[in-house]
Amino acid sequence: MNIVVLGAGAWGTALAVGAAAQDGEFRQVTLWARDAQQAEDMRTGRENRRYLPGVTLPPAISVADGALDASAPFLNQADLIVIGTPMSGLRGMLQTLAAHPTPVAWLCKGFEAPQGGESMHGLLGHEVRAQVAPRLKAGVLSGPSFAQEVAKGRPTALVAASEHASVRDMLVAAFHSPMLRIYANDDIVGVEVGGAVKNLLAIATGLCDGLDLGLNARAALVTRGLAEMTRLGVALGARADTFMGLSGLGDLVLTATGDLSRNRRVGQLLAKGMNLSEAVDSLGHVAEGVYSARTVVQRARLLGLDMPISEAVVALLEGRLRPAQAVAALMARDPKDEGL
Ligand SMILES: NC(=O)c1ccc[n+]([C@@H]2O[C@H](COP(=O)([O-])OP(=O)(O)OC[C@H]3O[C@@H](n4cnc5c(N)ncnc54)[C@H](O)[C@@H]3O)[C@@H](O)[C@H]2O)c1
Ligand SMILES: O=P(O)(O)OC[C@H](O)CO
Fold first, then answer.
1. For residues 218 and 257, is the Cβ–Cβ distance under 8 A?
2. For all residues of the chain together, what is the average pLDDT?
3. Cα separation of the two ends of the chain
4. What is the rounded distance in angstroms from the CA atom of residue 228 to the CA atom of residue 246?
5. 138-142 and 156-161 as β-strands: parallel, antiparallel, unpaired?
6. Where, by residue number, does sn-glycerol 3-phosphate bind (predicted)?
7. CB-ligand 2 contact for 145 (6 Å cutoff)
8. CA dist., res. 129 & res. 167, Å (int)
9. Which residues are CB-neighbours of 177 under 8 A, at least 6 positions away?
10. CA dist., res. 92 & res. 71, Å (int)
């Protein structure tokens, strides 16, 4: 099987390693980086020192770079093309691949930043695809997964979501292995809402832990955050049970509690008094929740939904509330019934 991964950040590299390390079947993996210097460094050192240090690139990985052209031979030879960029790179990649017959999957989790001004709202990956590449057979690979653990072969379960069975099947064939279980799901709306909203909630729990508010408070945020995620997803057309799965509850638990999370780290740093741009710059990696949060709230408001935790996170990121004020605002809300 021939797999191409476009984007050599932490997660694209980890999945390239996961696919290339499989025994018993011929695998050729091409890892494309937009930065020629980074690509040369990976070729010579057999390591992605910038984004995934300490992990050796297996021989089955070849590294490509240069301007990405839809007619590049390595793209035409692929059985599966995986887009490993952040949400900010997805639209351009899908435009480039729009006429390709090969199945495509993206890895990014979030809402794209609004295109065309602040009054517009951002889109999920499948909505961007519908706009720019409607004929492309595509889907998303999501679920609880820190790149460093996958690259080291630690047990992980993911979900492959697409409306096309052929894309789900191709993702399972490409990545399912003894250490990496891939479940299939046809609810791409639910899977994408889960991946986007859990990032914002991880900022909230990072803040909660950074302020030392306690484990009770964190459990409350995770549980009521799951209710917000489900509320938004169902209103956008998802199935409620998807939020009990890997891309919903699973990824929320991982990201909201795991110290490898960059989104959680942003919340912890804000709690310590760092400003947002310093916190983001200190990561060296993307934290999608920072860029998606406003769209989560915007879309919830358009649908008439109440999402108080998400509202508090946006107020905090925009500097309208300080950390302690955000907590006070959440606790001061009127009593209500528990349900969704
Ligand atoms: N790191 C993880 O553990 C992990 C796990 C699951 C999902 N994700 C998601 O995967 C996506 C990528 O995360 P990451 O951790 O690999 O990010 P990262 O910050 O480690 O790397 C991002 C990479 O994308 C490249 N890039 C950015 N814009 C690009 C563009 N327009 N064209 C080409 N390349 C571009 C950068 O040069 C960099 O190599 C995010 O949406 C993230 O939420 C990450
Ligand atoms: O480090 P984060 O917060 O971007 O989270 C990484 C993955 O999405 C966890 O599943």
1. yes
2. 96
3. 44
4. 17
5. antiparallel
6. 109, 143, 145, 198, 251, 261-263
7. yes
8. 14
9. 18, 22
10. 15
Compute, in angstroms, the gap from residue 221 CA to the centroid of ligand 2. Answer: 18
In Å, how far from its chain's centre is CA 243? 15
Ligand 1 atom with least separation from CA of 87:
41
Does residue 151 contact residue 55 with C-beta atoms inside 8 Å? yes
CA distances from 45 to 28, 53, 80 (A): 19, 11, 26
What is the SS3 assignment for 269-316? HHHCCCCHHHHHHHHCCCCHHHHHHHHHHHHHHHCCCCCHHHHHHHHH
- Unique residue bearing structure tokens 């991964």: 5
Q: Is 137 in the pocket of ligand 2 (CB under 6 A)?
A: no
Annotated binding-site residue numbers for sn-glycerol 3-phosphate: 109, 143, 145, 198, 251, 261-263
pLDDT by residue (tens digit) across 157-216? 999 999 999 999 999 999 999 999 999 999 999 999 999 999 999 999 999 999 999 999
Kind of pairing between the strands at 138-142 and 61-64: unpaired
Residue linked to tokens 């484990």: 215
ipTM: 0.99
Angle between helices 323-331 and 308-317 (to 10 degrees): 160
Ligand 2 center from residue 144 Cα (angstroms) = 8
Compute, in angstroms, the gap from residue 194 CA to the centroid of ligand 2: 12
On the 0-12 / 13-18 / 19+ scale of CB atoms within 10 A, 299 is: buried
